[in-house]
Amino acid sequence: MFFWTVIVFLYVLFFGRQSSNYQQTLLLVSLLMPITIWASYFLNYRLVPNYLLKGYYKKFIAYFIYTILASVYAEMLIVIFIFISLAEVKVGNMTPASIDIFFLLLALLMAVLLAGAIKLFKHWIESKERNQKLIKEKAEAELKFLKTQLHPHFLFNTLNNLYFLATQKSERTPTAILALSEILDYVLNSGKRKFVSLAEELQQVENYIALELLRYEDRVEIKSSVTGSGHTVELPPLVIISLIENAFKHGVLPNAGKASIEWRVQIGNKQLEIYVSNSCKNRGDQRGIGLDNLRNQLDLLYGDAYSLSSKDQEADMFTVTLTLPIHL
To answer: Which range among 71-75, 159-163, 288-292 shows the weakest confidence by mean pLDDT?
Structure first.
């Protein structure tokens, strides 16, 4: 209503610019408006969606030209009607703009194209919102898929440890089952969330290490430290566990002798740094499924705001360093 009110005002202003007879001009505009409105809505709701947006550009241009010519023809008939009935067949009594076919065409195009531009702009905004929603839904779906890969991979390795203890008929099997049940509860609950508190993650890291040490006993030397304040800091679930799991898998299993794993967590003002280092006498691909999935998961959550790097720190040591922005 606002749009067409503005168009009526402009039409009256333009058609009556050379005449003081605004009453006649308003009547002329009132008769021309249905043609203009029809042409605008025909363009927006028939030609644009059926031809322009579907890529039929030649047909769109042809039908658009036909629409404008038909509309101008209808407006000329209205002008003739005004000329006969109101101007008493005297051209001098007509407003100059009303008998100018070029001006009629220009006024019609002004309204129709302006309405079309508003419609296309609205369509662009809606398309942009839909695309953003689809991108978000796609990212969430990918994140869920990666979690469904990461969690079974993590649980599979843990169950292997439990199986080893059971085959050895170890008295520590009940302790391992209890630790595993806590980890399972954490995995199931954290899998529903994008972020968990650092305190929750560290607690399950201790459970996981204790479970691994039941198998390896004194074959593995563990060094750990958590520095900085802010245990309310949040991070994606199973991040630290995945890094330590990778260290056990590639730093302990291949080695027949003594192995070592060192992990540190540094809480800063703006970032959280996680450092995991393991011995690697038997070299190979240290990434594994867990680290690949972890990297993909972090890509979806942080984009370029994080860094995950790995390197051979020494001749027999492999180090992974992960830096995350602080997420409170």
So the answer is: 288-292
Report the alpha-carbon angle 127-132-136, nearest 5. Answer: 145
Tokens of 6: 């503005």
- Of residues 321 and 159, which shows the higher confidence score? 321
What are residue 193's phi and psi, to 5 degrees? -120, 150
Structural fold of domain 170-325: Heat Shock Protein 90 (3.30.565)
pLDDT in tens, 85-101: 655 545 455 555 555 56
For 78: left if phi > 0, alpha if psi spans -120 to 50, otherwise beta; the answer is alpha
Q: Where are the alpha helices (DSSP H) in the chain?
A: 2-15, 22-42, 57-85, 101-167, 173-190, 198-216, 239-251, 288-302
What's the mean pLDDT when you consider all of the chain? 76
106-121: average pLDDT: 80
Q: Would you list the DSSP string of 173-220?
A: HHHHHHHHHHHHHHHHHHTT-S-EEHHHHHHHHHHHHHHHHHHHGGGE
The domains of the chain are located at 2-131, 170-325
DSSP string, 207-268: HHHHHHHHHHGGGEEEEEEEESS-TT-EE-TTHHHHHHHHHHHHHTTT-SS-EEEEEEEEE-
The token duo for 175 is: 């302790």
